[in-house]
């Protein structure tokens, strides 16, 4: 298990590539856009050098890790020698199925195939493949290089061997893992979406300001981030897609807050757009 490919170089994809390279894998990061790959490369180099300056990792480890990463728009090149593939594209079921059908055709028979989804069904995706036993979900958390957890979600046809391999990969990446039997939202996303949605409803109702809602949960319930801060970090468009999926699969209690829908329509997507529940224009 030496070659690790990541499909999608956005916030999660670049973080997974960063972590895999530091974990000793030979990493191929793939995206359809050269500009996205350029942005990912700049981010990875900046964050690794920053970690070295602060003494978290050595300069030698940075040089080795950076040399371990290849950036390419060639999908076939990313797939053909991969021992592990993690997909990190948009939370859209049709898109994910399309990516994995292509991977199914191009990857070696032994390849571990994983989707980095926070809510969607690995069983549904795996059913479209010739090797559903080799497929599961590995839910990483943002920022990937700092967050310790990976949720490993077993689909209906995922084999015990595949689960064990995924746990080995997690350990090599320096992460703790939990095994989850598939159900919409898994463990963390189901709770996070519920808490975040209620915080948005309270903001909409005028119960308290965004700052005070977040402060209350950080100081009163010992959350490391407030739910509105976290939603801005994740991306409000991503959170809305997650809420819509949970609403469809789990029912009324996951109906997306109207304020979230309004913000997404307005292009207020959180940190990545410069504004969400908070303003980031000067950061």
List keywords for this structure.
Rossmann fold; 14% strand; oxidoreductase; 3HC_DH_C; 49% helix; 283 residues; 2 domains; alpha/beta
Name the CATH homologous superfamily of the largest domain: NAD(P)-binding Rossmann-like Domain
* Low-pLDDT stretches: none
| Overall residue-averaged pLDDT value | 95
| Portion in beta strands | 5-15%
Structural class: alpha/beta
N to C succession of SSEs? EHEHHEHEHEHEEHEHHHHH
C-alpha end-to-end distance: 40 Å
Biggest β-sheet strands, sense, barrel: 8 strands, mixed
The Cα radius of gyration reads 19 Å
> Helix count, per DSSP?
12
Output the CATH class name of the largest domain: Alpha Beta
Number of domains: 2
The level of helicity is 40-55%
The dominant shape is globular
What's the architecture of the largest domain, going by CATH?
Answer: 3-Layer(aba) Sandwich
Side-by-side strand order of the widest sheet: 3-2-1-4-5-6-7-8
Give a count of the beta strands, DSSP E runs of length 2 or more: 8
Q: In the CATH scheme, what's the topology name of the largest domain?
A: Rossmann fold
What is the topological layout?
Elements: E1 3-7, H1 11-22, E2 26-30, H2 34-53, H3 59-67, E3 69-72, H4 75-79, E4 84-87, H5 93-106, E5 112-115, H6 122-126, E6 135-139, E7 149-154, H7 160-172, E8 176-181, H8 188-205, H9 210-220, H10 227-234, H11 236-250, H12 258-265
Parallel strand pairs: 1-2, 1-4, 2-3, 4-5, 5-6, 7-8
Antiparallel strand pairs: 6-7
Helix pairs in contact: 1-2, 8-10, 8-11
GO molecular function: NAD+ binding; oxidoreductase activity, acting on the CH-OH group of donors, NAD or NADP as acceptor
Site (Important for catalytic activity): 139
Domain 3-hydroxyacyl-CoA dehydrogenase C-terminal: 185-280
């Amino acid at each position: 298990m030496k070659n690790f490919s990541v499909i999608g170089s956005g916030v999660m994809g670049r973080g997974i590539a960063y972590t895999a390279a530091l974990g000793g894998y030979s990493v191929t990061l793939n995206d359809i856009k050269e500009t996205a790959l350029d942005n990912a490369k700049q981010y990875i180099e900046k964050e690794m050098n920053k970690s070295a300056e602060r003494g978290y990792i050595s300069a030698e480890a940075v040089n080795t890790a950076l040399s371990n990463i290849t950036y390419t728009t060639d999908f076939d090149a990313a797939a053909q020698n991969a021992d592990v593939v993690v997909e990190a594209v948009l939370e859209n079921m049709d898109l994910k199925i399309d990516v994995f059908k292509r991977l199914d055709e191009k990857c070696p028979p032994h390849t571990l195939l994983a989707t980095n989804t926070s809510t969607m069904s690995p069983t549904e995706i795996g059913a479209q493949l010739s090797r559903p036993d080799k497929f599961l979900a590995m839910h990483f958390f943002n920022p990937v290089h700092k967050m310790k957890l990976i949720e490993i979600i077993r689909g209906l046809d995922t084999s015990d061997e595949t689960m064990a391999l995924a746990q080995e990969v997690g350990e090599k990446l320096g992460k703790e893992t939990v095994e989850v039997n598939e159900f919409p939202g898994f463990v963390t996303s189901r709770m996070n979406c519920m808490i975040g949605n209620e915080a948005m409803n309270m903001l909409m109702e005028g119960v308290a300001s965004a700052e005070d809602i977040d402060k209350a949960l950080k100081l009163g319930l010992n959350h490391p981030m407030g739910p509105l801060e976290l939603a801005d970090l994740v991306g409000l468009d991503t959170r809305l897609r997650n809420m819509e999926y949970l609403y469809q699969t789990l029912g009324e209690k996951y109906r997306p807050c109207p304020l979230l829908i309004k913000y997404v329509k307005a292009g207020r997507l959180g940190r990545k757009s410069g504004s969400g529940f908070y303003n980031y224009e000067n950061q």
